[in-house]
Records
---
Amino acid sequence: MNMWLIIVAEFVVMATLSTSCLTVNTTKTKRCFTELPVSLIENSIYVIDEEGRFYSSLDKKRLETNVKDYLSKNLKGLITSYEISFTYYAVDLDNKYVIDFSDDPMNVEINFKCNFYNVLDLNFYRCFELRNLYDERETN
């Protein structure tokens, strides 16, 4: 009887430790992505001069490199692998979102997926719009 009690107690302790480890790593991973620094996006903006008119756009390659470098540094030791994807979009005249295949996108949605120990799937996304980035900067 005492042997079974010890085995059950060890199982409960191991399950509790595993669950708390999973919770801590999940929280750290979520925070790393959801609190993605806006400066990564701002450092990927360039200005285009078109016949005396200036407008801003995202440098896709720089943005994707900045975000991937940030995540690989900050997620090291937390998860073994993850997927990241970038979807560039625009808003049409009817205020509908459409995929932007141009070389000069104004908006991006960044999707993040990972799996913890084949038990828990995480899937997060963040959207950044250049006009909102400038609005936030001017009000601060």
Note: Strands lie at 45-50, 53-58, 82-91, 97-99, 107-116, 120-129.
---
Amino acid sequence: MKNIGMVISNENRTYSCIANTQETIMKTQEEIKKEIEALKAVRPKVCPRSIFGDDNLASLDAQVKVLENDMDDDDIYDMYDHAGGSEYVLEAALYARQWIDDEVYPDDSGLADDCPLEQREE
């Protein structure tokens, strides 16, 4: 929240007004484009399933779709919240929306940084 103040004066009186406003901060188109590229680049290295059997690749694909199409919460629920749908994929898509809206990642890391990568033996 940000306080915005204003003082108005006339000959005899001074009025002041303070209003609280919600500042909207979102990722730029350039940041979104870079994150889409990062997600696509990391996809081949992502472990296909979580230890619980959830589909990591479908979750990553959902995040890319949200970023590419600037989907809002309603669009996301319409696409991913249905019978037989995965709550894991839905949550990943909603998380991508939160990332766009700058509601996550206070350290400015990206979605691709959280992708579970396969452990490869060298």
Note: DSSP finds four helices and two strands in the chain.
---
Amino acid sequence: MSQNLIRYVLHGPPGCRVSKKDAAGLCPPLPPQGTVQKHACYHHEIFGCQSSIGWKNFFRGHVSKKFQERYLAAGGTKDNWTYNLLKLLWSEIHALWEIRNGFEHGVDTCQKMHKRKQKLLKELQQVYSQRDYMLAIDRDQFYDTPEEHLQHHTRLSQVQSWIKMMRRKVL
């Protein structure tokens, strides 16, 4: 867990595009390219000190002395770092939320309508599976299949209202 957190704090999640301005506020400047081994040693001491006091403390504002020294030496401030970290976290949370909503509800109007129709079809199938538990007079309002029901009632709001009305009639 702490290794993932370290990677997140320094570089952001995989595929994340962190601007150089934001990255400068999050961690001390990185050494020149080609010095990968030195880079690992450069941050190893900082992470070791932070691990000794715990990474939960890191987000509570209790950072190690070594981290504070290196960060302040790089020209950062505590307020600047906190602001940049929160800005990065909220932007990532929002991006994940948008991806999830796009997957769940669709991105454009065509996808949204298709997703809504799929959900209504599932609900309609549930109501149709319960029609044996309804009074005989209420069973007359059903078509042979849920798909046929959707073909006869093209407005989804009508189908949704019908589903709500029929759910109340289940014994």
Note: The radius of gyration is 28 Å.
